[in-house]
Amino acid sequence: MTDSQIVAAVLTFGVSLLLWVLNWMADSATITLAAVMNKITVGLWEKLHLGLGGPTLRMANRHQHLIRGIKARMVSPALEILGMEMPRLAKRAARESGSKLMVHIGDTEKRYDPTVIRRLLPLLEKGDILTHYFTANPGGVLDGNGRLVPEAWEAEKTGVWFDTAHGQANFSFDIGRRIIDQGLLPHCISTDLTVPGRIRTVHSMTEMMTRFLGLGFTLEQVVTMCTTNPAKAIGVDERLGSLAVGRQADISMLRIEEGEWTVRDVLGASLRVTKAVMPALTLKRGEVFAPEWGPRPWGWEPDPGPSGAAGYKSCC
Predict the structure, then answer these.
(1) What is the C-alpha R_g of the chain?
(2) What single DSSP character describes residue 137?
(3) Strand 251-264 vs strand 270-284: parallel, antiparallel, or unpaired?
(4) What beta strand segments (E) does the chain contain?
(5) Residues of the chain with CATH 3.20.20.140
(6) pTM score of the predicted model
(7) Which of 192, 216, 240, 271 has the least CB density, counted as fewest CB within 10 Å?
(8) The domain over range 3-243 is classified in CATH as 3.20.20.140
(9) Residues 282-305, buried b or exposed e (16+ Cβ, 10 A)?
(10) Each residue's pLDDT tens digit, 151-187
């Protein structure tokens, strides 16, 4: 894992898991962690955690150097129980802890009103983060006619960060293409990586970069969305996210391979790509790391192609 990957994929933890991670990382010199506490998952119990003096605020205040925000998941059953009180509680906790609000959209249970996005987006303020905005699940930024809801444009004008965050269930090439074609481009690319996701859908941060090259973004745009922008979004750009005087000298060396591959979204839709990003070397605090074997049996390369799917033209 490289530092740029950690910045790009803001890690999310609950209170109990975060305590374990803090202890595990206490003596680590090779990992830089920026965490967003993942709250609002089950409903009424979370009201106790987010209340004044609750575990969430105590943890956020105790580890301000590490915790960069509070994350709310706009999914059932929490939405069914709390409705819009859920993101309001998370926003209150974020503001009281002096951190960012990150909101996960896309109801994987498909049980709540999909127009909730139009009530959610006006709650977000400059610097807050909307994640999974390429989701095909209910509650995304497109209306029933495939058009961006007006509130999405207002959020962009406000200064909300738009993060793609692939994950196991919230990334669609078709939705992404519709959003891109209407001009609302992502600020950040991230993985939302889990152990099952590494095997089934996400695979790696470099494969996320490959997918966005296939969607028509330039390499410069892709690198910016994986480094500089995420560092700014979580407020650590004074030391991470770019190679500059005074910044932490963590370097990811990548190589671009040319060939024929197929990448797939969470719905199984395929996209043919002719360039793939591969890890070559990582320098972390003066120590050199060679990449381990990749997530697939054959290493880091995507699935072999061609898939028969036409590549998208440049979007911007």
Answers:
(1) 19
(2) S
(3) antiparallel
(4) 11-13, 35-39, 67-73, 100-104, 129-131, 161-163, 251-264, 270-284, 287-289, 303-304
(5) 3-243
(6) 0.86
(7) 216
(8) yes
(9) bebeeeeeebeebbeeeebbbeeb
(10) 999 999 999 999 999 999 999 999 999 999 999 999 9
